[in-house]
UniProtKB/TrEMBL annotation:
This is Alpha-ketoglutarate decarboxylase. It comes from Paucihalobacter ruber. It comes from the Bacteria. Residues 1-28 form the signal peptide. The keyword Signal applies. Keywords: Signal.
Length: 178
């Protein structure tokens, strides 16, 4: 399992750097806009930080989508999350996702996203309990916004209270694409 985790982490880092470089390159010059394929690719994703008492959480989740037209888009993403609570546990989560977006009208969006995550939890107790497992999630969502910014809510239809890294099957989302 360490080999799989290491491999996912390497791919996550490579794709993150690629997305950052490509989006920076897009702003610096319009060479990609001359190519019909790259002119329809948009980059974005999410960044998260959480602090509370002895708890820390950090997430980096880059995404890229291809817009087939003004209504349909399909994309891929990566997810890397680290959580820790002092003297209780540490967890590392890495994974990938596939997302489909449909805009029935310009300001509304319906989405479906399949996410596959490898969860590695290490508990700091006398029992030495550690867990490493794969967790799938299938989110169906709806949002409101504009071309670059979308906010809404999504529901994990595969939610498992005992294994999910999320506290609830319902969760808000914010999507930003450039």
């Amino acid at each position: 399992m360490r080999v799989v985790k290491s491999l996912f982490l390497k791919y996550f880092i490579v794709l993150s750097v690629f997305c950052l470089f490509s989006s920076t390159n897009n702003f610096a010059q319009n060479s990609y806009n001359d190519n019909p394929f790259w002119s329809k690719v948009r980059y974005g994703g999410g960044i998260g930080l959480g602090f509370a008492n002895d708890f820390f959480s950090a997430t980096l989740a880059p995404q890229a989508i291809y817009e087939f037209n003004s209504q349909f888009a399909l994309g891929v993403g990566l997810n890397g999350t680290y959580n820790s609570q002092k003297n209780v546990f540490n967890s590392t989560v890495v994974g990938a996702s596939v997302i489909g977006l449909f805009n029935p009208i310009p300001d509304a969006q319906i989405s479906a996203e399949f996410e596959q995550l490898n969860v590695n939890q290490r508990f700091k107790n006398n029992l030495g309990i550690n867990r490493n497992y794969w967790y799938p999630a299938l989110f169906l969502g709806a949002g409101y916004g504009n071309r670059n910014f979308m906010a809404g809510i999504r529901y994990d239809v595969l939610y498992n209270r005992d294994k999910s890294i999320y506290g609830n099957a319902w969760m808000p989302f914010v999507r930003v694409f450039f």
